[in-house]
Amino acid sequence: MSAQSKGQRRQYRNDRRAEAAAVTRTAILDAALRLFARYGYAKVTIGDIAREAGTAVPTVYASTGGKFAILTVLMNRGVEDPVVDRTLDAVRRATDAREAIEIVAHGVRLDNERHLDIVQIMLTAAAVEERVEEELSRVARAYRQSLGVVAERLAELGALRSGLGVERATDILWFLFGLQSWRLFVADCGWSWDEAERLLAEQAIAALVEAAAPPRSVWPPDRRPGGHG
Description:
The protein is mainly α. The chain has helices spanning 3-39, 46-53, 57-64, 67-79, 82-93, 97-114, 116-126, 130-156, 166-177, 179-188, 193-208. The chain has two domains: 3-65, Homeodomain-like (Arc Repressor Mutant, subunit A), CATH 1.10.10; 76-218, Tetracycline Repressor, domain 2 (Orthogonal Bundle), CATH 1.10.357. The protein is built from eleven helices and no strands.
């Protein structure tokens, strides 16, 4: 057998091992996500994750690390989701302020919709482990920085309301499109994702865009705050 053939066979074996390791790692992460969502981060052990994934405890540690390392990888799924870069690229190309806000509302909605379980897990886990709280703060900073791109684009378009700067506009975007809003409307109040996206986009346009029309009320006429009935 030639040296070239031996090298090809060795590369083939290495590729197969790498593929198998990737499959195992994905199975472990998916198993951890299911268990964290079902029982809570604090109650799940590495042994539980190994059993759920159909592997051994040493394999879990070798593939993904301990429980905190697993949660960190899961948390980063939302930050690293391709929809984030696609949304920001579309915002940078937008030539209309309302269009830019509607783009970010939809993109952020998709990211939160895909990763709502992880958001809820990390919020509850942060209450019991300081390292998780620190990691959550890092994720929130990255999230907020992305929203800052939207504020900068609105400023470039000359569309921000009079007296409103990029920093304050970013604060408003974070208030409206941050983790807490989607969780409040969808998980706590039972709104559909479409309803939440539409409301938050309308509110952002009204709050940020110069001469924007006031948002349509989401309250039935007889249930508006301060009304009668």
